[in-house]
Write a structure and sequence with these properties.
Layout (H helix, E strand, L loop, with lengths): L3 H11 L23 E5 L2 E4 L4 E4 L14 H12 L9 H13 L5 E5 L2 H16 L3 E5 L12 E2 L9 E2 L6 H4 L2 E4 L4 H10 L4 E6 L15 H12 L2 E5 L11 H6 L5 E5 L9 E5 L1 H4 L18 H14 L4 H23 L4 E5 L2 E5 L8 H5 L3 H13 L2 E2 L8 E2 L5
Parallel strand pairs: 3-15, 5-8, 5-9, 9-10, 10-11
Antiparallel strand pairs: 1-2, 2-3, 4-12, 6-7, 11-12, 13-14, 14-16
Length: 408
């Protein structure tokens, strides 16, 4: 597969952009080689600048649940753009988009739009601290919630240890206010909440983990988080930036029947444009300015083009049978992959949820970051390159989800 033009662009980009990319995972650091540069996309396909056509399971890291360049989304965005791209003032589109989110997501009575998933989680943490008067946060090992300082933290040397920064530039004292438990281990959460009684403002979790690869919650895990946070007076935050409007119209919370105190959204709700959102009950959201003392603002929040694209996306997802079809496509792909691996004598597991999956080269269940890290990542790298050489574009990391769209 010829990639001369991509190679030249990457060489140029490295002189102009840190590492040649504007988000680190795009650099293929964990699988080796140089990234391809994309020229266009339609449906389930992308074309690179060298003219290679590939089946796309990255889907812009999640937003393109309807596939690329869906006509309804493109038409809505173009129509909105003709009226102006940003006003710095309220629009009818914000109201219509908010109504759709509130109607769909069980935990959200009031929603605030922002411009990214990172802004959503950052604002949710500030809101939790404002509401509780506490300042410690509990997250999970392998959980990624954007590049906000308090969340760029990984586990220390023991279950009860405070977090240590996983990025340069994060103040150690700030990182120390973040506690790290193990996904699917309610006991580790209980120990940390008891050891920090009265100090934890919130527990933040992806109800379906998507940044250690896809890892679904074990029975009782989310229920345990709900019980423990209520018992200890901490708020439960669901980061549904990936799972929101992907696994179901109401997100993972509607599937598992667990209502968090605050929900974070992003990706799909912008139809491919920059967007994020956080929402909660009317009582909790009354803390947010201009109603309350928790300040948060943004020049491009509620951008009309993003709102128009998001409305069109949610309207398409609301049609009968969409999620049933998406889940069937995901299951078909996962089952066929397992069949191929089995026939070849390759040990692999495929974790899946509606519209999401990850292949792990192991014979053991993958239920947390520890078991994900113990898989054969060298084999994954070889698999990645073999797939792209044969026209299939996968996320260039073992620890990222594959995204399936309704166009696949």
């Amino acid at each position: 597969m010829a990639r001369a033009r991509s190679a030249q662009l990457f060489s140029d980009a490295k002189n102009l952009i840190p590492g040649g990319v504007n988000s680190p995972a795009r650099a293929w650091g964990s699988v080796g080689g140089d990234p391809i540069f994309i020229k266009k996309a339609a449906g389930s396909r992308i074309w690179d600048v060298d003219g290679n056509e590939l089946i796309d399971y990255v889907c812009s890291w999640g937003p393109m649940v309807l596939g690329h360049a869906h006509p309804a989304v493109i038409d809505a965005a173009i129509d909105a753009t003709r009226s102006g791209t940003s006003f710095g003032a309220p629009t009818e589109l914000e109201v219509e988009m908010a109504r759709r989110v509130v109607d769909a997501v069980p935990s959200i009575e009031v929603v605030r739009f922002v411009s990214s998933g990172t802004e959503a989680t950052m604002s949710a943490l500030r809101l939790a601290r404002a509401k509780t008067g506490r300042y410690k946060i509990l997250k999970f090992n392998g959980g990624y919630h954007g590049h906000e300082d308090a969340l760029l933290v990984e586990a220390g040397s023991g279950l009860a240890n405070q977090g240590i920064a996983s990025s340069a530039g994060v103040h150690p004292e700030y990182a120390a206010s973040t506690l790290v438990a193990e996904f699917n281990d309610v006991g580790s959460v209980r120990l940390l909440l008891e050891a920090n009684a009265g100090e934890v403002a919130a527990v933040i979790v992806e109800p379906i983990a998507g940044n250690m690869g896809v890892v679904t919650p074990e029975p009782g895990f989310l229920e345990g988080l709900r019980e423990l946070t209520t018992e200890h007076g901490a708020l439960l935050i669901f980061d549904e930036v990936i799972s929101g409007f992907r696994v179901a119209l109401g997100g993972a919370q509607s599937i598992y029947g667990i209502t968090p105190d605050i929900t974070c959204l992003g990706k799909i709700i912008g139809g491919g444009f920059p967007v994020g959102a956080y929402g909660a009950s009317e009582e909790i959201m009354s803390e947010v300015a201009p109603l309350g003392p928790m300040y948060q603002a943004g020049t491009l929040s509620g951008n009309p083009v993003a709102m128009a694209a998001g409305i069109a996306t949610i309207d398409e997802l609301s049609k009968p049978g969409v999620y049933e079809g998406l889940e069937a496509s995901t299951d078909k792909l996962a089952d066929e992959l397992l069949g191929v691996f089995d026939a070849a004598g390759i040990r692999a597991v495929v974790n899946r949820a509606c519209g999401l999956l990850t292949v792990f080269f192991t014979e053991n269940p993958v239920i947390d970051m520890g078991s994900a890290s113990a898989t054969d990542r060298e084999s994954f790298g070889a698999f990645f390159h073999g797939m792209i050489d044969n026209g299939v574009y996968l996320p260039p990391s073992q620890f990222e989800a594959w995204f399936v769209s309704t166009a696949h």
